[in-house]
From TrEMBL:
Protein's name according to its UniProt entry: Binding-protein-dependent transport systems inner membrane component
Domain called ABC transmembrane type-1: residue spans: 89-281
Membrane spanning residue stretches: 26-47, 88-113, 125-145, 157-180, 201-225, 257-281
Compartments, as annotated in UniProt: Cell membrane
A GO cellular-component term linked to this record: plasma membrane
Domain of life: Bacteria
Organism: Paraburkholderia piptadeniae
Membrane topology, as annotated: Multi-pass membrane protein
Coiled-coil zones: none
Pfam families the record matches: BPD_transp_1
Family annotation (Gene3D superfamilies): MetI-like
PANTHER family in UniProt: INNER MEMBRANE ABC TRANSPORTER PERMEASE PROTEIN YCJP, MALTOSE TRANSPORT SYSTEM PERMEASE-RELATED
Amino acid sequence: MPSDLATGGWKLAWMSSRWRARGAQIAAFTTLAAFAVFCAFPFYWMLITTFKDVHDLINTANNPFLFNLPPTLENLRVLFEDTQYLRWLFNTLLVGVLVVAITLVLAVPAGYSLARLAGRRGRQLAIAIFLTYLIPPTILFIPFSRIIGVLGLQDSLWSLVLVYPGFTVPFCSWLMMGFFKAVPRDIEEAAMMDGLSHFGAFLKVVVPLSSPGILTVVIFTLTLVMQEFVYALTFITSSSQYTVSVGVPTFLVRGDVYFWGSMMGACLIVSLPVALLYNLFLDRFVAAFTVGAVK
């Protein structure tokens, strides 16, 4: 009898622990599913609104989450035929690529220098650079306008290429400093002992190990270029020179008339590549590249 009781108690404990583990798995799955639905909902809303008929959108009696009338391509036709959306996309991409290149050229060496600059002076410089990023862009509007006027860059995309790195370089330098600090010095020293110069070790060893930081800089910079509105609206006056952030609200909001379907289509087309880029390289953002590198 005691052995039977012990066996029964062991089975009950085993079943209880199994049910607790299964309950924890269900709770974790439910939480992740709710979070995924929450994150995906804006994309679903943009997608369904893009193909909704205007009468379906303005009728408050209709279910806003479903198609109450047959889907239509009219919103996309208005976007591509009645506006210069493709031109705005090209302008945004051009400015984004140039600003990303300038930011990487300046922020990567600056972040590496700050990471390897030991002592109190290095910490003070890092804090100063980060505080520069915290300055509100509106405060810099007047001096930037003066610079653009003196250089004769009004109504030119080069004005944005000149201004935007002032916002991206400080933060990205501080960001890259954190990634470079995670790379042990022993790796560089081992590479230099194998015949590489200091710059060669930085280029061939440190930079590849810090690729998650570089990808973060690229996505951050592209996102800023796509969503910045004030400077793009002020420095650019010709519609053919607009970026997406200015052209879409300027031409798709006419008085109190909002072309919601076309606006949502424009936003969806711009936001999907960034979301896909981030998800494709998500593992590289969180992977510990230097774990076990030094033996």
